Fold:
Amino acid sequence: GEDVEQSLFLSVREGDSSVINCTYTDSSSTYLYWYKQEPGAGLQLLTYIFSNMDMKQDQRLTVLLNKKDKHLSLRIADTQTGDSAIYFCAESIGNNAGNMLTFGGGTRLMVKP
Amino acid sequence: GAVVSQHPSRVICKSGTSVKIECRSLDFQATTMFWYRQFPKQSLMLMATSNEGSKATYEQGVEKDKFLINHASLTLSTLTVTSAHPEDSSFYICSASSGYQIYNEQFFGPGTRLTVL
Structure:
């Protein structure tokens, strides 16, 4: 079965790096995603990684994937107060754009000035 | 990127009434739309998947007669909460995908907050 887990809460100081972790159980995941949700809003795709990649960097964001351990992480460099939000990791299986996503429970990131 | 809108953004209704929520893909054709429900401080729970022109596929535990989904065109899906009760109060989010992304992206709407009194 599919199961995606995340820690509930992370607090960092402005300017520090944040690392949000996620574990998943389905080894047939094709794509893994990180979404950001600000209060009262929908989800914004931050980045994604294909399952045959180990790392992906996009400006302040670095995604690391350890497929052997089924572990995904999102590192935010130079974290800003505007990064305070809930971050969801998600996985999809297969190559069909209509495939469902399985979400983790979300990690609430709080950035202190 | 692709834009998905939802209407209304917020609705308050009396118990026993029905509420319709619209989800539109504004600049692309959405062959598949998804409806999620999110309780406070919790993750998104997939309610159903709908493909244009066919019946929605509901997740286990979701009452299809309670949550009516219609995907009549490639740019519009509607979710109707029938005979709403206070326990139906939640944040409902839709997402849409076309057949053309190479990374299976779903584009999410801004959500609709439903409060049933």
Summary: Chain B is about 0% helix and 50% strand. The interface with chain A takes residues 1, 4, 6, 31-32, 34, 41-44, 46, 49, 51, 93, 95, 97-101, 103-111, 113 of chain B (CB under 8 Å).
